[in-house]
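We modelled the chain as a single entity of 308 amino acids. Its sequence is:
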Amino acid sequence: MAVTPLKAKMGELVRGYLATRKVRQCELAKALQVSNSAVSQMLSGRIVLNQEQLITLSTLLALPRDQYLELSAMAASIHSGVKNLRSRFNQLMTSARCERGVDVRKLSNLTGVSTARLELLENCYNVIPTVEEIERLAPVLSCLPEDMLAAAGMYNGPGSGEPVAAEKSTPYMTGRKMLPVLTLTQLSKYTGEDTLHNFALSHSNELTERGAEIPVQTVAIRSSGEELKAGFSGEIWIFIGDERPVNYRELELMRDKRGNFRLRERRRGIWKLFHMPPEDHASSYAVWSRPVLELVLLPIRPRNEIGS
């Protein structure tokens, strides 16, 4: 069986784990119930461990979960015909992106990292991300920056000092924080079970720089006064989050039992709807609600002023 780069890398990893834990090849052979020659071929990449053997190996060497998963992913790739190497960082990027439910183009829109660069970060074994790229990718992919740095071989844990030298920074679309934007139609699919920010990252097709200074994770909702029955005409931008910072007004966007979105405010311990019709009392019961952190109202100008 030909030794591909991926097979050779898997054998190299196993050989390194044996040496680090001072476990001899004959001990591994005994645990796997194979010959010493078979173990030698595993370490050279001529034989690939199956999943059952990987579990035995992991138990014998007390491998951390991430090391076992890396070997397991390698074995699965080899058995499916993959020949090229994929680094821990490549695998982390792909698995985190798929878990968030975003494609490469949307991830590019949300982070400012080009699609071509993202393809390299996911598929090129030797690519090294910049610290700035990791700072942009980590919050969108729900990863810790230090975990991404470690997967890229740029960080050795607490007390190790600054990250090792990375590639030169690459140009980005903007240096400002960009917020995902949702319409009420998109927001109607939100059940309130997941965090709003996670939902927005999977469903937003637009970004805005508005609201960039709000101190917590924020989602921008683009709507109109008519849609919210707020008592005025014009566009309205509502910036909501999963938490309300200290000293922020008790104002919320809610979805009622009828599926309508409404603004409400707590006054003297009682929630009051904005412009609630007298017959609409049932809509005061919220299925879910999120704190409003900022409102931007853009009233429609009277017809006789347009173009003046």
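As a brief sanity check on the tokenised model: The radius of gyration is 27 Å. The mean pLDDT is 80.
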